[in-house]
Amino acid sequence: MDVKGAVQKPGVYYFKRGARIQEAIRAAGGALPNAAMKDVNLAKELADQQIIYIPAEGEQVANQAPAGTDAADPVTGKAPVNLNTATKEQLCQITGIGDKKADLILEYRQQHGQFKTVDELMQVSGFGEKTVAKIKEQVAV
């Protein structure tokens, strides 16, 4: 995990599967006194190659939700589905994605590793520019 922001020792840290954000902050020497911890979900499970960003009080962070949260769509109230951590069931909740396309995403992720961009979905069989454009607001990496 790449731990950044209002922590004592920002840097890259390695954790066992099942570790939580609380452990990442502890490994980075703890939060700074000015850390905005009220917005951080300490219980959220870490995902491989994740960036954990701890904002400072009053800091405005463009296009980035505090660690352990998902930025919700202001219109639907739904958080985007992370292509790198989503289960088949979560993928099926995306408009236009059924069992078959969800399986194709999971298969691609297993063979090629994590998605680096949402546009990388176009490398998955059955996903073209139009399909990706339709679901772009519902997914994240």
UniProtKB/TrEMBL annotation:
Q: Which domain of life is it from?
A: Bacteria
Could you give a single Gene Ontology term from the biological process aspect? protein secretion by the type II secretion system
Q: Which residues form the Helix-hairpin-helix DNA-binding motif class domain?
A: 89-108, 119-138
- Gene3D superfamilies given in the database record: AF1531-like domain
Q: Which SMART domains match?
A: HhH1
- List the Gene Ontology MF annotations in alphabetical order: DNA binding
Query: What is any Pfam family matched here?
Result: SLBB
GO cellular component terms, alphabetically, are: type II protein secretion system complex
Matching entries from PANTHER family are given as: ENDONUCLEASE/EXONUCLEASE/PHOSPHATASE FAMILY DOMAIN-CONTAINING PROTEIN 1 (PTHR21180), ENDONUCLEASE_EXONUCLEASE_PHOSPHATASE FAMILY DOMAIN-CONTAINING PROTEIN 1 (PTHR21180:SF32)
Recorded protein name is ComEA protein
